Amino acid sequence: MMKKMKNNLVLQGRVLMSILVLALMASCETGEDAEPEQEDPIASFQFEVSTDNFLEVTFSNFSKNATSYAWDFGDGNTSEEESPVHTFETVGTYEVTLTASNEAGVSATKTNTVAISDPDAELTKLAGLESKTWILQREGVALGIGPAAGDTQWWSFGGVTPLGDRPCILDDEYTFKRDGSFELNSNGTLFTDGTGNGGWNDSNIDLCGDEASVDWTSAGGIDMSAYQNGGAYTYTFADGTLKLMGDGVYVGLANKTNAGDIGTQSAPQSELTYSIVKLVDNDDVDSLQIALQVNGEAVFWTFNLVHYDDESKKPAIPAEGPKALFDFSYTDGDQTVTFTNSSRNATSYTWDFGDGNTSTDENPVHTYSADGVYSVTLTATDGTTESVITKAIELNVTPVTDFVIDHESAVTWDVFGGSVVEIVANPDASGLNTSANVLKLTHGDQTWAGIVTQLDGPLDFTGKTKMKVKLWAPATGTLKFKLEGVGGEPNQEIDLTVDKANEWVELTWDLSTDINGNPVASNAYSRVVLFPGWDTTTADVYYIDDITME
Fold first, then answer.
1. Distance of CA 511 to the CA centre of its chain
2. Same fold across 45-116 and 121-313
3. In which domain of life is the source organism classified (predicted)?
4. pLDDT digit of tens for each residue in the chain (550 aa)?
5. With contact defined as beta carbons under 8 Å apart, do 468 and 506 qualify?
6. Which superfamily does CATH assign the domain made up of 326-395 to?
7. Cα 315 to chain center, whole Å?
8. Which of 170, 234, 263, 543 is the most exposed place for a label (fewest CB within 10 A)?
């Protein structure tokens, strides 16, 4: 019995040992082959904005325990790259989210706020991120001149002169590039002023045309071809000032510079400085208004430019409307005048010959009943809009050789700009002027207010070198003195400085040099125009007397 129990215990011990061995073996096997438990992902990232492009951001991924990544940049764009580079479309604040995942499908997210700001927002308004192209606006006033930046009260293209009259100005494109270069694309056309308006010659007076047809030599013999399309230009932009550089650079009108009109004696400008009046970045149409100051005085050319984000919204260039033009001829001693009509874009015409007679012929022939000076007006129309031009005809008149206006005898002055005149007793019969009677002028409410008189014949300057006028002014300033031509002859004018107030002064115009650098022509001017108090609008009183030529 005892032996049997002993055997059972031995057997049970062996079984237990076997179970322990098997358990140990199973435990060892499990330790060698089982997969380790995965750690959860940790999402982490940093970012850096490019110094070359403020919209470009580099994202650096520092996530752990992840095998795949999903980025949401907060602007509608995504990426699955590990460390992407993303370019935002515009400035703003974006919530950027990174989702980091492992193979078990466990994910973690990290969100950072990315603020995109423009370090030079004003330059971006002007030149965009790479470049930006502007045109003169095709609705409203495109450009003009006035006494202050942004003021075009003296004359405007799109106001006084219809946009359709000079379409070649409106097809020019001005591109500012972020790298500081500037492109002027004239599209092969140019508007050329005559010398009367500061142009370099009279080959193409006040005319739009192809650059191939332009006379590029000035009346002074200077090469003006730098104004042709294709120049190399640069610009600077800072502190509200825009400077354009390069031979022949311009905006709008080639012959307008900081030193005044280019004229016949100067080469094309190599630099222009504009003040920024307005620079606005709108949703559809951006606006740029710049002003060119002339000679540091209260004279400014203002240019209104626009940029369209959507080119399809850019207006077409207005169609050219009627333009009244004519010339005339007659034989000395005869009173019959032949009129040659060269108007453009017109279907009907009305003539006023200045003697009470009219005509609707295209090219009329008219016989006057007497010699004299007549103002002839042609109105050309296309049925919708009209254009008017007036020229003076001096028919068999005797040139004026001894010119004196002293207000001791009758003289007719016409007024404009709101001026009022009358002949009165000299209020200060002392000093330079002791005349009994003088002309009293009360200035109108326009800066260009003044007076004009039509002479009996053209001024003959033979043996004469000067014109003089006596003026009593309430303040120092400027008197603009102007001679208007016969039959379209370019006008002559000069600004004379009034350096004394409340006393008589005598102002002198040297006739030895006209706007073309030549002596003022004889028998070419029969209207005398005066603008006392030029560029003022107050109702000040001026006295004028003794207008002579010597």
1. 34
2. no
3. Bacteria
4. 444 444 454 445 554 455 444 444 555 444 445 556 789 999 999 999 999 889 999 999 999 999 999 999 999 999 999 999 999 998 999 999 999 999 999 999 999 999 999 999 999 999 998 999 999 999 999 999 999 999 999 999 999 888 988 999 999 999 999 999 999 999 999 999 988 788 999 887 778 889 999 999 999 999 999 999 988 999 999 999 999 999 999 999 999 999 999 998 899 999 999 999 999 999 889 999 999 999 999 999 999 999 999 999 999 999 888 989 999 999 888 899 999 999 988 999 999 999 999 999 999 999 999 988 888 999 999 998 899 998 888 888 888 888 899 998 888 899 998 999 999 999 999 999 999 999 999 999 888 899 999 888 888 888 888 999 999 999 999 999 999 876 555 678 888 999 999 999 999 999 887 666 678 888 788 889 999 998 888 889 999 999 999 9
5. yes
6. Immunoglobulins (2.60.40.10)
7. 17
8. 234
- What is 45-116's CATH topology? Immunoglobulin-like (2.60.40)
Identity at 412, one-letter amino acid code: T
Angstrom distance (rounded) from CA 332 to CA 60: 92
Q: In what order do the strands lie in the sheet with 78-79?
A: 78-79, 68-72, 92-101, 107-116
How far apart are alpha carbons 487 and 456 in whole angstroms?
15
Any residues with CB less than 8 A from the CB of 109 and at least 6 apart, and which? 43, 97, 98, 99, 100
| Token pair listed for 146 | 């006035």
Q: Tally the residues of the chain.
A: 550
> H or E stretch including 23?
helix 2-33
Picking from 374, 366, 306, 320, the residue whose alpha carbon sits closest to that of residue 341 is: 366
User: Domain 121-313, what architecture?
Assistant: Beta Barrel (2.40)
Tell me how far apart the alpha carbons of residues 526 and 406 are, in angstroms, rounded to a whole number: 17
Q: Report how far Cα 498 is from the mean position of its chain's Cα atoms.
A: 32
Any idea which fold 404-549 has?
Answer: Jelly Rolls (2.60.120)
Give the whole-angstrom CA distance, residue 423 versus residue 318.
48
Instruction: Determine contact, residues 486/392, Cβ cutoff 8 Å.
Output: yes
